[in-house]
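Record type: monomer structure entry
Structure origin: computed from sequence
Chain ID: A
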Amino acid sequence: VQLVESGGGLVQPGGSLRLSCAASGFAFSSYAMKWYRQAPGKEREWVATVTSTGGSTSYADSVKGRFTISRNNAENTVYLQMNSLKPDDTAVYYCSSVGYWGQGTQVTVSS
């Protein structure tokens, strides 16, 4: 199993980023996918989940209305569109499924 995140970077408050997570080594379309994040000095927290078909999504209250999780089962990829970013969104973002984790991608929101 391999999960590879990309798309992180430095963005100003109010800006947007789109994270991607490319998956391989398991039946991607059969499993829900999740995004988590971990800010410096804090525990890892759940951000969003998308069901196996993409038909249902759920979000942490802290990102609801600003972030959108989606997936492309033909390309074994899950996305996290992040809008109206705030400094509190600064963290390493991880995708996860079937008990596996990617290496993470750094998102820094700062002016």
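Annotation 1: The longest strand covers residues 17-24.
Annotation 2: The chain has a mean pLDDT of 97.
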